[in-house]
User: Fold these one by one.
Assistant:
Number 1:
Amino acid sequence: MGHRHPSRLKNSEVGHARARWLLRAELAGCEECRGEGDREALADLASEGVFDSLLTGFVLARVQQWRVPGRPPRYPATVYRLAPVDERDFWREPTQHCMRVCTVAGARGSSVDTVPALRELRLMSTADRASVLDDVIDGLCEDEA
């Protein structure tokens, strides 16, 4: 690409360089780069890959938002169980499925086990993977706004 998408991202948990690039392209509204980034993310389902970085960043940001004062959650827990019902209803079915197998752990919900979700993504059709990616990107962009 011969151009850049300047933007400072708030979510430091999205650590993979190409995942951050895709998120900046989305925020800039660059369809060309978004298409390229989507193809990369959909093809890279490895641990610590592009999709994994986006998924991890999404989950860690959301878990912090979902905390209820005076009611600390117990970890490990699935993302689906931690999410408020209105958020779960917003996700499309393939995303809901991934969030049922993605686990948050750590004393304060500071780590995510995405391996089962990545395994499920590999079994999904490209259209279902794209639907999960769209939900994750939309959630990350909401956090950046």
Note: The mean pLDDT is 90.
Number 2:
Amino acid sequence: MKSITIAVLSWLAQAMGAGAADEYAMRSAVAAEWQSYWAAWAVAASATSIIISGIALYFLFRSLQQTQEALDITKDLGHRQTRAYVEAATLTFSMDDDGDLVVRCQNSGETPSPMVAVGVEATRVSAGNIGHVLKTNRPPSPPRKTWTAVGARGTLRAKVTPLTGHSAVAEFRTGAFDTNERLLVVGTIIYQDIFNQFFKTEFAFFSASPKDGFLRPNGLSAAYRPIPLQEVESVLQLDSRPLLQN
């Protein structure tokens, strides 16, 4: 179309006998029109290139983001498969003191736990009130003692003193409870894994007679729950930064 327009304009100039100045002006106008025509195409091509580059960068970013998400998931799964899982396996009376208890902590994980802290509380409850106490009025049992490590698939016998229930344990062992009363012991384990993460496991046991030992009440307690470092420091009342350096 542009070629036809130029040819027509040239023919008209020659047919009308336009002077050299008029022909020069006409050619300048045609050249300017051609320049504006190709400049418009150049701008359009540049805009298209920018749009395509932006789309390519977006998909590249999403690809990198998805790759990072996949790596994070793989890392988390690896940690879950190998980290420590510490819980209270059994509860017994201490052989040395009538008011103390011994919690056998079991690490069912594939790697050691560099730090374990255990706390218990004991209370006297009626036989039919155990579930209600655990659900609505569970006594606090923050750990007050720590141990250095529990090996992979290993155990730890932690001798602990109830926060305020030391006398309740002693009275129970001497037969001071009624037949409808039970000794309820609740506890908390805070432990660290080799990936410098902290977890909390709660447990509960009850006994109807010192000769019968301890049983677990119905229902499950929270176990292996991740907790932040600030909560560890607050509960244990210590600076846990040295623990992170292990």
Note: The first strand starts at residue 86 and ends at 93.
Number 3:
Amino acid sequence: MESELFDIVGFENDVMEWSDYENEVPPLDDPRWIRTDRPPLQGQVRTVKVYHPFYMMIGEPFWMLYTPVSSSLNGWDSHPEEIEHSSFVRCSIERVLERNDYKAWLRVKVLEVLMIKDYNIRFPVRDGSNGYLEDFEMFGKPYIFNYRDWLFINAGAQGDLGVWGLVKRMDSQYHMLVYGDWGFHRSNAFGGNILLPKHQIEGWIEQALQNNRYETVE
């Protein structure tokens, strides 16, 4: 769970869902349980439900992308107002409540919460001209969603694997603060402050506009 390209390496938010339960939890296969809108705070012990490909051990710290419940279920492009309330959360497992081969209820300790909107201040700028955008280019024709100063860029191959990035526009420059990489056996999210080539991103925007794959909401 380390990367030379990013400051944070963790799991994407679809691997963990947050609840207000404590020690009594619904059956693992029951889909009708209440997701919480209460964000994690440092020092809390919380009950979460995790899914494959989550694989951490008790006591081993890990990072998890956290988004509020509406965007967790439907995506930032459906609830862009929740982008600035999203974060990476560092946790460790304290206890396993229930588990099978594909999912589990866990009690986790919240060790640290880092809000995404601050990454351009918190982390030093990295040069994004090499090693960051090749997978987007490989898939081609990215979908781009624009909300205020934020761009959500998504590209994939027939729902089998793909990549996405959350980019913040600042002073006519483009900083990728979160990157996602998913497939059959991975669902990863990375945090940092990556200065992307302006000509490349603006070329993607122009291409997305031409292909009707650009959406904007104010």
Note: The longest helix spans residues 198-210.
